[in-house]
Design brief:
Elements lengths: L15 H13 L12 H15 L5 H28 L14 H11 L5 H16 L6 H9 L2 H11 L2 E4 L1 E4 L7 H4 L5 H9 L3 E3 L6 E5 L2 E6 L2 E6 L6 E4 L3 E3 L1 H7 L10 H10 L4 E2 L5 E6 L13 E8 L2 E8 L4 H7 L7 E5 L4 E6 L2 E6 L7 H9 L13
Antiparallel strand pairs: 1-2, 3-8, 4-7, 5-6, 6-9, 10-12, 10-13, 11-12, 13-14, 14-15
Helix pairs in contact: 1-4, 2-3, 3-5, 4-6, 6-10
């Protein structure tokens, strides 16, 4: 009976996917694990010494050193195999199907990973093993070959870049300006990006950049756990600037399990970059108001606002609109000269903006002492004071 005190993993305590994974690993690496336990390498070494002694093999000192080196190397490889497998087990999902992993894939996997002793690199390899067990066919042999060629510095650099990745259907590393400190202070420099391009993890175009096409009016994207619905200017066939870098096929596979941390301030930075092209957060809090279309010298501004309702009042066309704070200056410039104004309010709050041609006043609806300047300016334009009441709902 096996000595349970020397057991690395007691299979009786594991869920079925973990048992199947260990059996598959054992089959692929030539019986590295027993059905009832995974033996410690120390015990294997001891058994090897006993066999050697019982056989009474006479060997030279050179042969003895070679044998010792072989045992040490194989013991290290065995320990690496076991450590990677142990780290993979907690990452198995309930629907994992390790029985469908191809034996050749496992042989290739451990042929490359068994020489990895660094704990952080073992964690990366274990994530690949778990990912393949959760969904067989996820990782190609090409990915294994590239992973084997990475040193720890490459892996850490790639992990840093993954901290800038948004999920836009698939993970996309958003690099809008490699000289911006949001990147450089986090270790992503121009030379770092060129290096990741050279080793085949990303494609980096420092001049032209990349654009995703064909987005509908509203599209959900995510940064970390934060999901945002982007609102594009047009109802269909919209473009989205995704910066100067993209994962290669292999890089994309590795990015799936990359456990990077989100970068403080990057969400706001990326949203500001997209806003330059009119792409906004569809669920943002906005100002509300009513615009008389007849008051506008430049009616094109209406195309940039979110119009909730339109109706006629005699010769006037009126629009109930929602708009961002950054759109207010353009709205002010778009007003016609003369006795016109627009007032908008921050939904759910007391803040009101009174907008004249090229002049904007901030008031509090509940505090009429803040209305004075806005009213006086309106009167100077010939607007009757009774019309300067700034109602909100």
């Amino acid at each position: 009976m096996a000595d349970q005190n020397n057991s690395l993993i007691n299979l009786g305590d594991l869920a079925e996917p973990a048992k199947v994974l260990i059996e598959k690993v054992s089959e692929a690496v030539g019986g590295a694990f027993k059905p009832y336990q995974i033996k410690r390498v120390a015990k294997a070494e001891a058994e090897a010494e006993i066999i050697k002694a019982n056989a009474q093999i006479e060997i030279s000192e050179l042969q003895q050193r070679a044998l010792n080196r072989f045992l040490h190397e194989e013991a290290t490889k065995q320990e690496n195999i076991e450590n990677i497998t142990k780290k993979a087990i907690p990452q198995l999902g309930e629907g994992a199907n390790p029985g469908e992993i191809e034996k050749d894939w496992l042989v290739d996997f451990f042929d490359k990973s068994r020489i990895v002793s660094d704990e952080e690199m073992q964690s990366l390899w274990s994530s690949i093993l778990a990912g393949e067990a959760n969904k067989p066919g996820t990782y190609s042999k090409r990915t294994l070959h590239l992973m084997a060629s990475l040193d720890k510095g490459d892996a850490l650099l790639f992990t840093k870049l993954c901290g800038f990745a948004w999920n836009i259907g698939t993970p996309v590393p958003l690099v809008f300006d490699s000289q911006n400190e949001i990147y450089t202070k986090n270790g992503i420099t121009f030379s770092a990006l060129k290096h990741l391009d050279a080793i085949g993890l990303i494609s980096f175009e420092s001049l032209s950049g990349y654009v995703r096409k064909g987005f509908a009016k509203n599209t959900a994207v995510a940064y970390g756990a934060k999901v945002t619905v982007l609102e594009f200017p047009n109802n269909e066939k919209n473009d989205l600037n995704i910066g100067h870098a993209m994962f290669t096929d292999v890089g994309l596979q590795l990015a799936q399990f990359c456990q990077s941390k989100i970068v403080n301030g990057f969400y706001e930075y990326a949203m500001a970059e997209w806003l330059k092209n009119g792409v906004k957060d569809a669920n943002r809090v906005m100002y509300k108001g009513t615009i008389i279309e007849n008051s506008l010298a430049n009616k094109e501004v209406l195309k940039k606002l979110r119009i909730k309702k339109t109706w006629q009042n005699d010769d006037w066309t009126l629009h109930s609109v929602l708009l961002d704070e950054d759109q207010i200056p353009e709205l002010s410039r778009s007003l016609d000269t003369g006795s016109w104004y627009i007032h908008i309010w921050y939904q759910g709050k007391d803040d009101v903006k009174v907008i004249y041609k090229d002049k904007i006043f901030d008031i509090k609806f509940s505090d009429k002492s803040t209305w004075t300047d806005a009213i006086e300016h309106g009167k100077s334009l010939g607007i009757p004071e009774e019309q300067l009441d700034f109602p909100i709902d």
